[in-house]
Amino acid sequence: MNKPFSQACENNKRPILEILTKEFSTVNHVLEVGSGTGQHAVFFGQHLPHLTWQTSDLLVNHAGINAWLDEAALDNVQKPIVLDLDDSFPQLDKNRPIDALYTANTLHIVSWPLVVNFFKLIEKNLPANAVICIYGPFNYQGNFTSQSNADFDLWLKERNSESGIRDIESILKLATSSNLALVEDYSMPANNRLLTFTKVK
């Protein structure tokens, strides 16, 4: 099949890599929640060879992810597993525990109940000191950070009324309740952010 392609992934992969190179320097096994096209997995897997990168997504996206993975043939990037935030955490190799999580452009796509469940699954399944990196747009003090984000939010809600750019204050409240401590809130290109957390227990 033809590989799916996201221009946004192409645009943001290098700025994100700069952060992940630092934040994931001491971890070994990353679960990517919502691998989408598979572009990020291949790019980060190539540039962070010390990591095992586990892709995941809904089953409907697996063929596209596998098209990217098959072409790249990277030993450290694993075939996608089914991960539905409405369900339980996937069973993974207990001999190689996940000690980091990465997700990009997911929290504004899924419904708010699934955002809540996302943090509950992290709390329940990731070990202490795990590193969590979340990329995407956020509102601050109830305000959009740019007109383009306001327009994007309208577009999201036209597609699905349960989607929308989330308030950073609500995200941080969920994170705190899930035993996550904010390490850094990075400003990224195109009015996006990259939030990094560590699991405190």
TrEMBL record:
Gene3D superfamilies, A to Z: Vaccinia Virus protein VP39
InterPro entries named among the record's database cross-references: DUF938, SAM-dependent_MTases_sf
Protein species of origin: Litorilituus sediminis
Protein's name in the database: DUF938 domain-containing protein
Tree of life domain: Bacteria
